[in-house]
Specification:
Keywords: Membrane, Transmembrane, Transmembrane helix
Number of strands: 0
Oligomer: single chain
Distance between the termini: 52 Å
Structural class: mainly alpha
Helix content: over 70%
Strand content: under 5%
Order of helices and strands: H
Shape: rod-shaped
Number of helices: 1
Amino acid sequence: MPGEWVSFMTGGKIIFVLGVGSSVAMAIFALMMFLK
C-alpha cells in the first residue's frame, strides 16, 4: 500500500507540474500575442 501511495503521489505531482507549466506557458504566449 505505501509503495502504491508514493507512486500515486509522484504521478500526481508530475501531472500537477505539467498542468501548471502548460497553463503558465499558454498565459505567457497569449500575453505576448496580445502585446504585439
